[in-house]
Structures are given as C-alpha cells and as structure tokens.
Amino acid sequence: MKVTDHITNAKGKTLFSFEIVPPVKGKNIQELYNNIDPLMEFNPPFIDVTTSREETVYVKKEGLLDKKTTRMRPGTVGICASIQHKYNVDTVPHVICGGFTKEETEYMLVDCHYLGIENVMALRGDARSEQKYFEPTHGGHSYAIELVEQIQNLNKGKYLHETVEAEHSSEFCIGVAGYPEKHLESPSLQSDLKRLKEKVDAGADYVVTQMFFDNKKYFEFVEAARNLGINVPIIPGIKPIAVKRHLQLLPQVFRIDLPQDLIEAVDQCATNKDVRAVGIEWAIQQSKELKAAGVPVLHYYSMGKSDNIKAIAEALF
Ligand code: FAD
Question: Ligand 1: does its nearest atom lie under 6 Å from the Cβ of 144?
Fold first, then answer.
C-alpha cells in the first residue's frame, strides 16, 4: 500500500515508522532482522531502506595502490523485498541520483515494480567522500527533481527509450527530502523551500524531513511550506543521539543546530550508555509534542541497534 494511503487510513492517528541502513557487504541479513524484530510490535506500516553511495578504495597491486570504486552496502531492493516477505509490511527503497545512470535507475524501479514495492524515496545523494560538492554521475541525474520526473514518467508507461501501455505500469508513491534547517548547499531556507515545492509540483506525494532536535524548527518549516502551497504530508524524521561524538558530527555533516540543553545534558554524561539514555529521553519529549500536534507519522532514523528506537516507541505507541 502507498505511504499516503496508510496516512489517510490512519484518520489522524500518528503512525510509527523507521529507516534502516543495509548491512556492510559480507554480513548476514539476520543481523538486520534482529534489529527489526523488536520494533514490529509497534506496527510500522512501512520501513525505509537507504541506498549508499559508491566509495573509493585503494587496492594493493604489484606494490602500487590501484584506485577502485565499490559499494560497501549494496542490496537495498533485495532487503526491501525480503522485509516485505518476512514481515508483511510495506518497504520504501531509497533511490539516489549519485552513482547511478538513468538506465540503472530504470532497472532498479522495474525490479521494485515486479516485487510489489509501491513506494520510493527520490533523493539526490551526497557528494562522494573525496568530493567537496556533489558531482552528477555521467548519464545520471543532477537533482532529485529529475528522479521524481523519471519515476512519474514510468508511472505513465514512459520508459527512457520506449513507451508502453500505461495499464501495466507502476504507480509508485514518491517521497522526497525536506530540510527544516535548510539543505547545507542552499543559499537560504526560502530558496530551499522553493526547490521542495518544485519537487512536489513534479509529482512527489510526501516529504520526510532531515533530523532536527528543536520542534520549533519543524513547526515553522511546515508553516512556511504550507504558505508556499506545499500541501502533501510532511513527516518528521527523528534521530536519538546515541554517542557523545554526535555533538560534533551531526552539526558538521548535516548543518543542523543542537539545542543548548541537549548539548549540556550529553556533555555531563560519563558513559555512552548515559548518552544513549539522554538521547532516548530527548526523542521521547520531541515525539510527544509532535504527536500531540497531529503529525501523520513519526519516522525514526535507526542506524544499527534498535534498542533506543524501541524504548522511544514504548513511551509513545
Ligand atoms: P535535491 O532536492 O536535489 O536538492 C539538493 C540541493 O540542490 C539543495 O540545496 C536544493 O536547494 C538544490 N536544488 C534543487 N534543485 C535545484 C536546481 N534545479 N538548481 C539548483 N539547485 C537546486 N542520501 C543517500 O545517499 N542515501 C539515502 O538513502 C538518503 N536518504 C535520505 C533520507 C532523508 C529523509 C533525507 C532528508 C536525506 C537522505 N539522504 C540520503 C541525504 C540526501 O541525499 C542529501 O541530503 C543530499 O545532499 C540532497 O538530497 P535531496 O534529495 O534533498 O536533493
């Protein structure tokens, strides 16, 4: 079922969902299941599975270092299919521009359609670690909006190089990213919101936000988006702080602000167990306020171990 249908059917009740990252190549899927299992009692109507960019590795060859490109966490579509099959829940594979040609994206979408996957998140992807700015892949897309357009075309039976009867086409429901504190490359929040509006006008059905730690930022973002005529559901993305290093890492990587109270509470922690507890409590308070405000879904970023997401869900669902 489509994410938007799940929201409609919930009739105003806030739903619980989460996002997982595929395991590193060579690891067993059981590890992933072990982290999903404890969250299934909260009835997520859908689970997102991220797609990672390719990375550069240096392989020793005849005394020299040979530069190669590899993908450390492949398997997004396969994981989505196995989760749907095992848990009877909808999955949302993330489709990214970076590292994929338009043809490769088309094949991925065709696979999703055959596998009964009805939702996709359309994203640009970040710059590769050795790049300062995002550089489009040769033959690929430059911005997420182009991906939204490709998916919408596919929904109408328009493939890249052929047009077929729309009767048997996909009907993907499309999610896109939104940034309550603006995307790091955008000159202003208003410019970024206009780009978001373009994605929605191109056919995006819902928005999932970047993590934020101050609900005021989300509420103001939603208000500004509505004022611009963005009327699709805007799902807040929540990430519980899990380690002390997040205090530096999250603002640096995502250009988001952390509230002073949260910084001080984390700073006072003696162990990472204490930090995890602070992160859980902060996310519970954030989630309670968002739920009371009637957000359609509370979507949690679960980067590995899910014990913290379970603790938050227990307090809310
Ligand atoms: P876009 O919407 O293309 O925007 C990128 C930047 O370009 C913005 O600054 C925007 O304002 C600007 N822009 C847009 N259109 C134009 C235009 N026509 N001309 C000029 N400027 C323009 N990354 C991954 O690699 N894998 C994932 O699975 C993944 N999942 C994510 C899930 C969520 C919910 C979020 C919020 C992010 C996720 N990301 C993921 C990160 C995302 O790929 C990065 O934030 C990326 O830098 C931007 O992606 P976007 O889809 O928002 O890009």
Answer: yes
